[in-house]
Amino acid sequence: MNLFCFGLSHQTAGVDVRERFAIPGSALPEALARLKTMPGLTEGLVLSTCNRTEFYVTGAFGDSQGFFESFHRDFRAGDDAHLFCFADNHCVRHLFRVASGLESMVIGETEIFGQIKRAYELANRAKTTGKLLNRLFQKSFHVGKQIRTSTAITRGSVSVGSVAVDLAEQIFGDLDGRQIMILGAGETSEKTAKAFRSRGAEQIFVSNRSFERAQELATMTGGRAIHFDDWEPEFRDLDILVSSTAAPHAIITLDKLAPLLRARPYRPLFLIDLALPRDIDPAVCKLDGVYLYDLDSLQNIAKRTLAVRKQASEKCQQLIEHHVRDFQLWLESTSHRISPASWPNRPECAEDYSGREMPLLPTLGLANTGT
Q1: Which of 343, 299, 218, 234 is nearest to 18 (CA)?
Q2: pTM here?
């Protein structure tokens, strides 16, 4: 039984690449159905978030590039450089690190744990998982919980939303009196709104296609809900807009934003885009006084938390290695032993991961992308 994980993440690809390979929640059932038709695969699961698109599969597997070229219609020349592939214990170790938050943009963040559970539940209902992936993912939930409860890995900012608030504080200092709008009312938006509230922000507006959900989040944070069709007029007094919707395309464009800014001359507007695909067209940076930060821009801030948690990360890795060996023993006891000799011709797969961090893209950094 061959076990593989392949895909791309914020450590191997920028947001402009990741958004092309992201699979929205509404499209996951179709993606899982397609997995069933892939020759040689016996089990499969898809994990797609803002920061990663990963496939976990068992069975006979050729190469990750060939799979992506057949699975994604928008595969372009050079995309193969962003892909990674792990097999055997390297795959097991990678999943345990992802579930523990060690591979996240914000080390130790908790959102990924829920995302993995939802991906597994969906695949299980679609009957694309079997004995091996069921055991692997159930084990990953145990590992993720133990890492978070027995180490200090969650100390400090532990979500992309809280990092966005860190950025806002760097820009404005005191958030009291600043008007903030949150577009979207999902988990990321909820954590971001709560983080703003905990840092002293009181004027928070929430807009979402489901007005009922916007009202719920506004009530949680002492803010005000706005109908999705009515958020544009609020731009006149807005200081910060954070967008994290599930829209398949940009909802804030140059043509839409330009006339809104005429009512607020000489007043800067800071936009933070936490969505994938992106909610805000990068072209808005052409407008005077507009400063845009996306997921890649936040990565540099998130890296600062890594130094604080380095000692905790080392303890986490020791625990993970224990669980990797435990999983291998289970495989051997059930006659599903995975041997590196099973894949003599797979140069695209990592042969030695050893818990090392993937290199961050050198072009990613916190920068003012406005004019």
Answers
A1: 299
A2: 0.79
